[in-house]
């Protein structure tokens, strides 16, 4: 009897373990399916741009092949008559909602509008699950002159940028930290005692001549402006200090991307960030200067290369003024003399939905006049989280590879051209493989 009882207990134990194992497999299966579904949804999300630009008066195809559908209508702020005409097998007017069109992005779609307007596309996954809202902007067709010339860049910050804080040894031998936790890396000092800061040298002189009296600093931090009080203290040399490291300018070499009919320019394809804080620098003013490439450091796997240019900051070498420093690049106006030296022909822009995988070219100068070099577009991200990395490309031109090893620092802003259209600008190099890099769509540079 006891023996049979043991057999039954062993059998029950095996059955219980089997049930637990089966439950584990079910949970693993459900988890795997859920993970795959989420990954698939992310891929679908990235295939649908958050914003679509179409040219007024021109029919344009959109072939995303994704299982989403929804409604297309004029943006709420625009309540007057007319909806954007949509053609294609999947487009049908919704009779219940005036001026609203049904769209299905699983099928090719043709968009057409005559007026400059903004529309909204509300999309649902499988037509059921709210998924994404897309802004559709009708724009005038535009032509730009691709430049591809090297430029010297000099910018002054709006106020003084704090790049680090710390302590120092005072005249009594004790550690001093006057600003304590009051100031942070990335702060901008705009005013001292209500007066605008004139520059790094003038600010340092104010601190040294303060005689340890309390100062009121006006600070800009993440778009918030406020005042705080600090009291400079003496170091071992008897000089008054705050214990901060500051910067009020930046300079470097880049590439001019385009020029329009009004001599307005765009360059770099990304903003000028401070090298220490990695934050976008607040621009007070800036200038472009002529520069001559004097040496090239060839890029290697793990080590990016560089174009080294000589910049003479004389007024006679000034090419133009920088009026904006944004995530999408630097923008401003060239003077007539500089504009007259750009002789390339104007060409239409290519919108991001028109960019194809395959052959393209970049226009850049690695010594002498700008030249076209062959590249291959390897991937297109219509809705990349990083606006500066919508295009992935690879250098295929043997001459450029022999000269630079691929994409190097200083080539940021080099125009990317495909099928006779300006589609973007080079922005980054892949450090582990300098033959590969990224670019920004030209339309993103134009909406800054």
UniProtKB/TrEMBL annotation:
Residues 224-448 form the Peptidase S55 domain. It is an enzyme of class 3 (hydrolase). GO terms for molecular function: hydrolase activity. Keywords: Hydrolase, Membrane, Transmembrane, Transmembrane helix. The keyword Transmembrane applies. It comes from the Bacteria. This is SpoIVB peptidase. The gene is spoIVB.
């Amino acid at each position: 009897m006891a023996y049979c009882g043991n057999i039954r207990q062993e059998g029950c134990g095996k059955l219980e373990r089997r049930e637990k194992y089966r439950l584990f497999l079910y949970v693993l299966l459900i988890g795997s399916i859920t993970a795959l579904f989420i990954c698939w949804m992310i891929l679908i999300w990235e295939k649908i741009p958050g914003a679509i630009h179409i040219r007024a008066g021109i029919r344009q195809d959109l072939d995303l092949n994704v299982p989403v559908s929804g409604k297309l209508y004029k943006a709420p702020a625009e309540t007057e008559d007319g909806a954007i005409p949509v053609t294609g097998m999947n487009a049908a007017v919704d009779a219940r909602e005036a001026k609203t069109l049904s769209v299905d992005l699983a099928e090719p779609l043709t968009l057409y509008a005559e007026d400059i307007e903004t529309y909204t596309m509300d999309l649902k996954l499988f037509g059921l699950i709210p998924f994404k809202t897309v802004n559709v902007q009708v724009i005038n067709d535009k032509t730009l002159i691709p430049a591809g010339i090297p430029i010297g860049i000099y910018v002054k910050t709006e106020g003084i940028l704090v790049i680090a804080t710390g302590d120092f040894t005072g005249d009594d031998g004790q550690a001093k930290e006057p600003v304590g936790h009051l100031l942070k890396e990335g702060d901008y000092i705009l005013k001292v005692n209500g007066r605008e800061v004139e520059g790094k040298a003038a600010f340092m002189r104010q601190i040294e001549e303060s005689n340890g009296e309390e100062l009121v600093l006006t600070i800009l931090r993440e778009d918030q402006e406020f005042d705080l009080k600090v009291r400079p203290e003496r170091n071992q040399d008897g000089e008054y200090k705050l214990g901060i490291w500051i910067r009020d300018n930046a300079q470097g070499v880049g590439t001019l991307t385009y020029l329009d009919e009004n001599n307005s320019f765009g360059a770099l394809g990304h903003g000028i960030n401070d090298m220490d804080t990695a934050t976008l620098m607040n621009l007070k003013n800036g200038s472009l200067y002529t520069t001559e490439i004097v040496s090239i450091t060839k890029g290697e796997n793990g080590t990016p290369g560089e174009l080294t240019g000589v910049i003479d900051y004389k007024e006679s070498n000034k090419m133009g003024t920088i009026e904006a420093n944004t995530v999408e690049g630097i923008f401003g106006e060239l003077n007539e003399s500089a504009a007259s030296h750009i002789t390339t022909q104007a060409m239409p822009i290519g919108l991001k939905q028109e960019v194809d995988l395959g052959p393209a070219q970049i226009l850049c100068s690695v010594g002498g006049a700008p030249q076209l070099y062959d590249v291959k577009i390897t991937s297109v991200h219509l809705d990349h989280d990083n606006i500066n990395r919508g295009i992935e490309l690879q250098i295929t031109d043997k001459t450029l590879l022999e000269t630079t090893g691929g994409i190097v620092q200083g080539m940021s802003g080099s125009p990317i051209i495909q099928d006779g259209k300006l589609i973007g600008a080079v922005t980054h190099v892949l450090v582990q493989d300098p033959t590969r890099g990224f670019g920004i769509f030209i339309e993103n540079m134009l909406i800054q």
